[in-house]
Design goal:
The protein is of the alpha+beta class and about 425 residues long. It is about 15% helix and about 35% strand. Among the domains are: about 70 residues, Sandwich (Immunoglobulin-like), CATH 2.60.40.10; about 100 residues, Sandwich (Immunoglobulin-like), CATH 2.60.40; about 100 residues, Immunoglobulins (Immunoglobulin-like, Sandwich). The protein is built from five helices and 22 strands. The strands form six sheets. It has a four-stranded mixed sheet, with no helix packed on it. The radius of gyration is 43 Å and the shape is elongated. It starts with 13 loop residues before the first helix and ends with a helix. The N terminus and C terminus are likely disordered. Bound molecules: 2-acetamido-2-deoxy-beta-D-glucopyranose (2 copies). The site of one 2-acetamido-2-deoxy-beta-D-glucopyranose has 7 residues, from strand 10, strand 14 and strand 15.
Length: about 425
C-alpha cells in the first residue's frame, strides 16, 4: 500500500476522499482586444476609452440604443449593478453626434467550480484522468493539470517530494482528459486539476495509486465454439487486451459470464487461463458469452465486459453424467479442435455400480424362470402319475414357491 489512507480498493470513488481545495485569483492571460469579462451578480463598469470623464456620451448595445434595465451612466462610464447573465453583449459608446468612440464586447459568467475528477489506469504503467466542470461558467476555460509523486522515505514515513512534479499531459483530441505516463505501480501520485477562466481558478487535488485505479480494457478476440460430441459444452477462448503488454509480473485473471440467449440470468466462472470449457450449457440453445479481466493479484477493478460472442452446443452422440467432471480448460490440449475425427472417448462409460445392479436383476430373473419351468415340469409329472391327488399336489407346489421366495438373498445367488 502506497498511501496512508485506507480503503484504497475503492478509489474509483476517490472523489469522496479527495483532498479538495480551491483558490480564486483574478484571471490573467485572457487579454483580448475589445473583450471584457464580468461576473454575474457583480457590479460591472464599462468605460468609454475614447472619452474618459466626458459627459454627453451615449451607450448602445448590439447596435441599438436599448440598454439593460437598471444600468447607470456616470461620467461617460456605463455601470451595470449586479449584472445579469443576459446583460452580456456588444456595447459601444458614441459622442453627441453619434460618432463611435469605442466598442467593447462584454462577456458575463461565473467563477470556475471545483472540477470532479476520476482516474483510471488501463495498463500498469500509465493512468489517465478525466474531469467534468461542476459549474457552467459560460466563459472560456482552460485546465492546468499536474501531478506530484509521493515517495516512500526511510521505509516508513511518507513525504511529499517537490522534486517529482510533472504535467498530466492533455491531448487536444480528448478534451477534459490528461494522462501520466511511465508511472511506478507502487507509488502514489497527487493530481492537481485546476480549472481557470478569466474570472479566477479552482483546483481539485486527488491522490492516486495505480493499484487502486487499475482497470484493464476488456479482453479481445473472444471465440466460442461447440465441442463435438459434447452437447453440454462450449469451448471459449480470448486474448489479452492490446493495451496490456504481457509481462510475467503483471498478469491478468479473467471471468466468463454466459447464458442461453433467451434466459435472463448469467452463470459465471473465473479462470487464469486464456480459454475455458463451459460444461453446463444447454444443448441446442444458443448461448451468449462475455469475458472480463482484472489484475491477477486482484488490484483495482474488473474491466468492462468484452463484446459478446455466441454459439450453440450441438446435440451430441452420447450424454453421460461423467461429462460434468472435467472443468479445467487448461487440461484440454489445443490439438483437440473441432474436427470430423471420431469420438475418442469410449462409448460405454457407465457406472460400475450400475453394472452390478443389472447383474443382480438378471440373476433373479433367470432364477424365477428356472423355478417356474421346474414347477410346471413337476406339476405335469405329478398329474401324469397320480391324477386323483390333483388338489394336494397343487397346494404343495405353491408352498414350495413361497418357500423359495423366502430364501435369503445369498442363497438365491
Ligand atoms: C504507457 O504509455 C506509453 C506511451 O503511450 C506506451 O508506449 C507504453 O507501452 C504504455 N505502457 C504500457 C504498460 O502499456
Ligand atoms: C494546483 O495547481 C494550480 C495551478 O498550477 C496552482 O496554482 C495550485 O497552487 C496547485 N495547488 C496545489 C495544492 O499544489
Amino acid at each position: 500500500m502506497c498511501t496512508p489512507t485506507p480503503g484504497l480498493r475503492s478509489v474509483m470513488v476517490l472523489l469522496a476522499a479527495a483532498l479538495v481545495s480551491t483558490s480564486v485569483t483574478s484571471g490573467e492571460g485572457w487579454r483580448e482586444e475589445g473583450v471584457q469579462y464580468g461576473q454575474v451578480g457583480a457590479d460591472v463598469v464599462l468605460s468609454c476609452a475614447g472619452a474618459p470623464g466626458r459627459s454627453g456620451v451615449e451607450w448602445w448595445r448590439d447596435g441599438a440604443a436599448a440598454l439593460p434595465e437598471g444600468c447607470i451612466l456616470r461620467d461617460g462610464d456605463l455601470l451595470l449593478p449586479q449584472a445579469e447573465l443576459a446583460a452580456g453583449g456588444d456595447y459601444s459608446c458614441h459622442d453627441g453626434t453619434g460618432q463611435l468612440l469605442c466598442s467593447v464586447s462584454l462577456r458575463l459568467g461565473y467563477l470556475p467550480g471545483i472540477p470532479s475528477v476520476t482516474c483510471r489506469a488501463s495498463d500498469y504503467e500509465n493512468f489517465s484522468c478525466s474531469w467534468t466542470p461542476s459549474v457552467e461558467t459560460f466563459l472560456p476555460t482552460r485546465y492546468i493539470t499536474t501531478y506530484r509523486k509521493k515517495l516512500l522515505m526511510d521505509g516508513e514515513k511518507w513525504r511529499t517530494q517537490t522534486s517529482q512534479v510533472g504535467p498530466c499531459v492533455q491531448d487536444p483530441g480528448r478534451p477534459h482528459t490528461c494522462s501520466v505516463h511511465k508511472c511506478e505501480f507502487w507509488s502514489s501520485y497527487r493530481l492537481n486539476v485546476t480549472e481557470v477562466n478569466p474570472l479566477g481558478s479552482s483546483f481539485r487535488l486527488l491522490d492516486v495509486t495505480m493499484q487502486a485505479i487499475i482497470k484493464p480494457d476488456p479482453p479481445e478476440g473472444l471465440v466460442v465454439e461447440p465441442v463435438p460430441s459434447a452437447p453440454r459444452r462450449l469451448r471459449v477462448r480470448w486474448q489479452y487486451p492490446a493495451s496490456w503488454p504481457k509481462q510475467p509480473h503483471f498478469q491478468l485473471k479473467f471471468r466468463l459470464q454466459y447464458r442461453p440467449v433467451a434466459h435472463g440470468s448469467w452463470s459465471m466462472v473465473e479462470t487464469v487461463n486464456l480459454s475455458e470449457v463451459i460444461t453446463d450449457a444447454f444443448s441446442g440453445l444458443e448461448h451468449v458469452v462475455q469475458v472480463g479481466a482484472k489484475d491477477f493479484l486482484d488490484a483495482g477493478n474488473w474491466s468492462e465486459w468484452s463484446a459478446e460472442a455466441r454459439a450453440t452446443p450441438g446435440p451430441g452422440l452420447t450424454v453421460t453424467p461423467g461429462d460434468e467432471a472435467i472443468t479445467n480448460a487448461g487440461l484440454e490440449s489445443p490439438a483437440e479442435m473441432p474436427s470430423l475425427a471420431p469420438n475418442p472417448e469410449p462409448i460405454d462409460r457407465s457406472d460400475p455400480m450400475e453394472k452390478v445392479a443389472i447383474l443382480i436383476s438378471l440373476g433373479i430373473f433367470s432364477f424365477f424362470i428356472l423355478a417356474l419351468v421346474l414347477g410346471i415340469t413337476i406339476a405335469v409329472w405329478l398329474r401324469l402319475r397320480k391324477p386323483s391327488k390333483d388338489e394336494t399336489k397343487k397346494h404343495d407346489f405353491l408352498a414350495a414357491a413361497v418357500h423359495m421366495r423366502a430364501l435369503p438373498k445369498p442363497q438365491i445367488l
